[in-house]
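User: For my dataset I need records formatted as: sequence, then structure tokens, nothing else. Please produce one.
Assistant:
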Amino acid sequence: MRKLQLLVACLILSGMAACSDDDDKSKVNGNATAVANNLKSGTWRITNFVEDNDDHTSDFTGYDFTFGTNNVLTATNGTNVYTGTWSVIDDNSMDDDDDSFDSDIDVNIGFASPAEFADLTDDWDVAERTGTRIKLVDVSGGNGGTDYLTFEKN
């Protein structure tokens, strides 16, 4: 009888472990400082930008993005240079998060012009992060559509 109780206890504990948040691959590992440090290391390019179900990735072909000090974001293609702002914050509020993932880390991007770059302006939820790729997502407030933005390290 004692062996049966021990077996049941083990099954319950293993079931709880399988359901723990640590196993949820949709969670973003790290914290805001780690994400910011990752972005500040090297230059990045946009490999995916989908807004309102329209793919705008080609608008950024040839541009390198530098997430610099003092929250200055620079995009250059060798001819044109556009300057914006960036920041990374821990954001506990789930009011702007997509229910399909759990991220409390936001990357805020701001460009005033040109129009293609101004479209990047938003508070993006970090959906996935590796040393060479950061996938961002934003659920639009107005139409409820989901926008996607991916940076990959050069």
